């Protein structure tokens, strides 16, 4: 057969790289970067080939599964046909809400939801029908603080300022490792080259991280910081900028209000006062403040390492206030809002916060979702509104949420559970039904989420590479079928949603480049299809005040919630810093959260699920390199090999998340050979950002002790504590 060339955006991470995929019949021959893609310009990472491995993986489910063993027993499943599966699923959902009320159904949606067009467009309708308040997602173990800061400052949860690295001169980066992650809330393919370009223009990258990461290694300067102390560092940075009057230029002043209140609130946070807490000398902080203010254009950006700490929301708010007061918001080379072709800012509501609270612990909702740290207790605590049945879509919360072991056990107390997922894994093995969508390469793709966060305005539609095999369903078809059946059971009206492509077409027509907006491009899906490598819509532009969604189109710096949280931070400043080891996470370029360990090409090589420790801490605790150690936190303990690393800050240990595949019932042949342990068996469902309810996955207090009496156990048994 002749070779066919397909062009497609990779949906696996936020970088949305353009790919050229060569196929021969139903086989993939080659996957390489698409040099014509205006955003990624030919860049790809090693995970791109995993698209092929996902597609051919024998463990990927092709037919729905029904559980045939009782709860508490070793999970066993049988394949069933789609009609039976959808009927059973709809019956389960409808029965739950009609017998026990809408809140007895819990919903958790995981990270791949936002990387999947059909899930983005079609999940909402089903859950509007079911009306439960017990909705959860990966947002509250991730980017919740960014949405809150955006809501408080700019009036819309999706108004996230994007670091304009390509035109910047100074980049202050806290708690992010884009060389491994390829960027987050910042779609920035080929970030290594962009950093190199920044440096060759005479610009500088300064990284603040408790580990000398792959990104820190290429930075102009790196400072270790005690985990969880960034809010003190940022408050002192703001304090210094304001005291030394290093604010300006004036452009934003006319748009902002409430600076005096902020100035007062950070008065106590001098560089000298915070230094013992952060570990960063006062002089170094002052230098950063001066360089940042003096740079022609500067960026302050922070990601997981500051979001998932006990001051996550305050961190993200402080970061944007620093960008605003130095005049770096809405400025080329600073941070700007994007203008995506399908604009989620105009298409969705602004989001709201703390309008209701979780039943058991009273944690605040955000955008009608509750913090996932509360999921287990909402299942296990008796009373009105207890979650009895659970829908999980594209998520693996047993491995990805704090105190995952507790959730693992809680899931066994459910009456019923259904998962929309292509794998039988640590979470889905608890389900009564698993509904597997077809392979991603059999679906069309338009990235509704990540064009919004990209360093350049571009748009790209990817048609399916392979036709959908007979007897399989897209994620969106599953949602439509469930909606119809559930509505029938509940006696409610239902209208099937059109295919995602139709919705993208409408979104493009009504977006900023669409005919409905009178734009000369008159963009629609047909036009976009004529540009298989994507359409370049230009660099990010200044858009203030027009883009703001605050009622008066001004930025109010004195929002009461972050200002009150500075009071909580002040208490931290006054207390002595607690001693003891702190646990942080890490990511690796060849992995992606919990679900990409089943591909030989990515997982091969040396064990990556190790506890990195500074040699000084290891000597002190009598731990040898490679020796098994017992790591314990308030909620649990596990055994893992220790690995000596001079790149760790002394007093800090690092373990990646997403491992722990050696549990019973899992059907991931390759991942089980590299099972590792789950970092979230140590993270604490009660160690949160008190303001937002976001999980504090970083900075968890742990103790580490050598395991002397047991030799290291190879293979899957390691995870089975
Ligand atoms: N300790 C610690 N924990 C963390 C983090 C950390 O840094 N440290 N990071 C957190 C972050 S940022 C995130 S985003 C979360 C992720 O948390 P989750 O989203 O809960 O977990 P994932 O590992 O992304 O699991 C994705 C699931 O989706 C399935 N899937 C993949 N593609 C598709 C698809 O196209 N359709 C459907 N229906 N299913 C699909 C996979 O089989 C898998 O079961 O983890 C969080 N947990
Ligand atoms: N290869 C790969 N790519 C991915 C993913 C993946 O799992 N693997 N996951 C994707 C997802 S869902 C997300 S959300 C993004 C995340 O993207 P990033 O946030 O860029 O990735 P992380 O590696 O989590 O980076 C967090 C950094 O914070 C540091 N850190 C920990 N605690 C602290 C602290 O208290 N203060 C400071 N200043 N730093 C701290 C850690 O050492 C780490 O270097 O990556 C995405 N891309
Ligand atoms: S960087 Fe992300 S989007 Fe690009 S090829 Fe790798 S996984 Fe795909
Ligand atoms: Mo994430």
Please give the CATH class of the domain at 154-340 and 545-566: Alpha Beta
Distance between the termini: 51 Å
CATH topology of the domain at 154-340 and 545-566: Dimethylsulfoxide Reductase, domain 2
What level of helicity do the residues show? 25-40%
The global form is globular
CATH architecture of the domain at 154-340 and 545-566: 3-Layer(aba) Sandwich
Continuous helix count: 24
Oligomer: single chain
Kindly state the number of beta strands.
30
Structural class: alpha/beta
The fraction of residues assigned to DSSP E strands is: 15-25%
CATH homologous superfamily (4th level) name of the domain at 154-340 and 545-566: Dimethylsulfoxide Reductase, domain 2
Instruction: Report the biggest beta sheet as strand number plus sense, adding barrel if it closes.
Output: 7 strands, mixed
Description:
- The chain is an alpha/beta fold.
- Among the domains are: 4-56, Phosphorylase Kinase, domain 1; 154-340 and 545-566, Dimethylsulfoxide Reductase, domain 2, CATH 3.40.228.10; 578-706, Beta Barrel (Barwin-like endoglucanases), CATH 2.40.40.
- Helix content is 30%, strand content 17%.
- It is built from 24 helices and 30 strands.
- Strands 5-4-19-18-17-6-7 form a 7-stranded mixed sheet, with helices on one face. A 6-stranded mixed sheet has the order 26-28-27-30-25-29. It has a 4-stranded parallel sheet with strand order 11-10-9-13, sandwiched between helices.
- A hairpin with a 4-residue loop joins strand 27 (628-632) and strand 28 (637-644).
- Helix 2 packs across helix 18 (475-490), helix 8 (230-243) packs antiparallel against helix 10 and helix 10 packs across helix 11 (282-294).
- It is globular, with a radius of gyration of 25 Å.
């Amino acid at each position: 057969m002749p070779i066919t060339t397909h062009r497609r955006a990779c949906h696996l991470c936020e970088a949305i790289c353009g790919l050229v995929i060569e196929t021969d019949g139903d086989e993939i021959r080659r996957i390489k970067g698409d040099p014509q893609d205006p955003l990624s310009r030919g860049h790809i990472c090693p995970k791109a080939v995993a698209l092929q491995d996902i597609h051919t993986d024998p463990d990927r489910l092709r037919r729905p599964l029904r559980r045939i063993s009782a709860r508490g027993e070793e999970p066993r499943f049988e394949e069933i046909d789609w009609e039976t599966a959808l009927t059973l699923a709809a019956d389960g959902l409808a029965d739950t809400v009609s017998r026990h009320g809408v809140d007895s159904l819990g919903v958790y949606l995981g990270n791949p939801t936002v990387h999947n067009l059909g899930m983005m467009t079609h999940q909402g309708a089903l859950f509007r029908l079911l009306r439960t308040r017990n909705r959860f997602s990966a947002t509250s173990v991730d980017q919740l603080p960014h949405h809150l800061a955006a809501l408080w400052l700019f009036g819309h949860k999706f108004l996230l300022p994007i670091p304009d690295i390509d035109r910047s001169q100074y980049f202050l980066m806290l708690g992010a490792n884009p060389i491994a992650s390829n960027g987050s809330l910042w779609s920035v393919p080929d970030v290594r080259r962009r950093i190199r370009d920044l440096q060759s223009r005479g610009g500088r990258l300064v990284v603040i991280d408790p580990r000398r990461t792959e990104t820190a290694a290429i930075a102009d300067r790196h400072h270790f910081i005690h985990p969880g102390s960034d809010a003190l560092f940022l408050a002192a940075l703001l304090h210094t900028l304001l005291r030394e009057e290093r604010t300006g230029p004036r452009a934003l002043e006319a748009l902002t209000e409430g600076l005096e209140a902020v100035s007062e609130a950070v008065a106590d946070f001098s560089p000298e006062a915070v230094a013992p807490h952060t570990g960063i000398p006062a002089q170094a902080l002052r230098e950063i403040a001066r360089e940042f203010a003096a740079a022609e254009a500067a960026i302050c950006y922070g990601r997981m390492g500051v979001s998932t700490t006990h001051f996550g929301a305050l961190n993200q708010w402080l970061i944007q206030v620093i960008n605003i007061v130095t005049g770096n918001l809405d400025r080329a080379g600073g941070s700007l809002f994007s203008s995506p072709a399908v604009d989620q800012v105009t298409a969705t509501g602004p989001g709201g916060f703390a309008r209701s609270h979780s039943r058991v612990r009273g944690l605040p909702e955000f955008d009608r979702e509750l913090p996932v740290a509360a999921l287990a207790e909402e299942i296990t605590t008796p009373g009105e509104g207890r979650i009895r049945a659970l829908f999980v879509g594209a998520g693996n919360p047993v491995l990805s949420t704090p105190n995952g072991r507790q959730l693992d056990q809680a899931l066994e107390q459910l009456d019923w559970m259904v998962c929309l997922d292509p794998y039988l894994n640590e979470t889905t093995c608890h389900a009564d039904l698993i509904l597997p969508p077809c392979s991603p390469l059999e679906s069309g793709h338009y990235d509704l989420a990540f064009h919004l966060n990209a360093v350049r305005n571009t748009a790209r539609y990817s048609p399916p590479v392979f036709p959908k095999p007979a007897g399989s369903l897209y994620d969106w078809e599953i949602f439509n079928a469930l909606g119809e059946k559930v509505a029938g059971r509940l006696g409610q009206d239902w209208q099937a949603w059109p295919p995602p492509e139709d919705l993208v077409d409408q979104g493009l027509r009504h977006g900023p480049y669409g005919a409905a907006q009178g734009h000369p491009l008159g963009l629609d899906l047909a036009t976009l299809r004529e540009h298989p490598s994507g359409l370049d819509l230009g660099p990010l532009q200044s858009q203030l005040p027009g883009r703001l969604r605050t009622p008066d189109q001004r930025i109010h710096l004195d929002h009461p919630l972050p200002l009150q949280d500075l009071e909580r931070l002040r208490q931290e400043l006054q207390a002595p810093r607690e001693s003891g080891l702190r646990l942080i996470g890490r990511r690796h370029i060849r992995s992606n959260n919990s679900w990409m360990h089943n591909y030989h090409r990515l997982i091969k090589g040396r064990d990556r699920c190790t506890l990195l420790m500074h040699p000084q801490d290891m000597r002190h605790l009598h731990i040898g390199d490679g020796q098994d150690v017992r790591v314990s936190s308030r909620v649990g303990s596990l055994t893992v090999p220790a690995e000596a690393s001079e790149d760790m800050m002394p007093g800090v240990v690092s373990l990646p998340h997403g491992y722990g595949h050696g549990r019973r019932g899992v059907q991931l042949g390759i991942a089980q050979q590299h099972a590792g342990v789950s970092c979230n068996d140590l993270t604490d469902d009660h160690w949160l950002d008190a303001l937002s309810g976001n999980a504090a996955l970083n900075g968890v207090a742990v103790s580490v002790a050598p395991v002397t009496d047991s030799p290291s156990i190879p293979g899957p048994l390691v995870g089975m504590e």
